[in-house]
Amino acid sequence: QSALTQPRSVSGSPGQSVTISCTGTSSDVGGYNYVSWYQQHPGKAPKLMIYDVTKRPSGVPDRFSGSKSGNTASLTISGLQAEDEADYYCCSYAGSYTFDVFGTGTKVTVL
Amino acid sequence: QITLKESGPTLVKTTQTLTLTCTFSGFSLSTNGVGVGWIRQPPGKALEWLALIYWDDDKRYSPSLKSRLTITKDTSTNQVVLTMTNMDPVDTATYFCGHRKYDFWAYWGQGTLVTVSS
Questions:
Q1: d(Cα A83, Cα B48) in Å, to the nearest integer?
Q2: Residue (of A61, A73, A75, A77) closest to A33 by Cα position
Q3: B19: closest CA among B34, B9, B31, B32?
Q4: Helix residue ranges per DSSP H, chain A
Q5: Residue B90 touches partner A, C-beta closer than 8 Å
Q6: Which residues of A touch B (CB under 8 A)?
Q7: What does the pLDDT look like over A83-94, one tens digit per residue?
Q8: Contact check, Cβ <8 Å, B103/A34
Q9: What does each C-alpha distance from A96 to A78, A101, B96 come to in angstroms?
Q10: I need a labelling partner for A91 at 20 to 30 A (CA). Which of A6, A7, A75, B3 fits?
């Protein structure tokens, strides 16, 4: 099972919006509404930001939003802030055999 | 408050078996729908899911590593153990344990770096 494809990096100025794509196949992203997104600061554990494509856990700012179209899921950060600079990973359920597949990761830089 | 913490050796030799323990608190692995699993991350690289065990002892493994992995749980001590056989330098990574709720990893441990050397 191949990793989901994400852009290596995206950047934006404070206050701007950035969108990270996560491309898979009909066997993972396109086949289930079970895409989640994780934020990881250097040397830290990942933190859940979005689950079930669009849902935000309690405590996650509403600047973070998720969506999906076909085999591609997206994470949008609106009103970019300095503390949003981190690596972001998508993850999709891929069926009872393959189970979970993570993305290749995207580094978000706040200019 | 849910917490998880990984423990185990920081250095293993090539061909040895790695045993990692995840000790958790704030939830029960007897609760319907709950799972605990392992995810690793080689230095500077992406996350990779390894294994998961559910409250009902259902176990799932990454197809590419299935032959080398075993995951078990001890509900009485709130621990989950992962063993990985035949370790190789490419297995050098930070190993995280995580609390899985339905279809996402809701909570993560701090991770433990395991280096494989000959």
A1: 25
A2: A73
A3: B9
A4: 95-98
A5: no
A6: 1, 3, 32, 34, 36, 38, 44-48, 51-52, 57, 89, 91, 93, 96-105
A7: 999 999 999 999
A8: yes
A9: 34, 12, 22
A10: B3
Span B26-52, average pLDDT: 96
Q: How far apart are CA A87 and CA A44, in angstroms?
A: 10
- How does pLDDT run across A63-104, given as a tens digit for each residue? 999 999 999 999 999 999 999 999 999 999 999 888 899 999
Cα separations in angstroms, A29 against A72, A76, B18, B85: 7, 17, 32, 31
Partner-chain contact A38 B39, CB within 8 Å: no
Residues of B in contact with A105 (CB under 8 A): 45-47
Give the closest residue to B61 by CA, choosing from B46, B74, B72, B76: B72
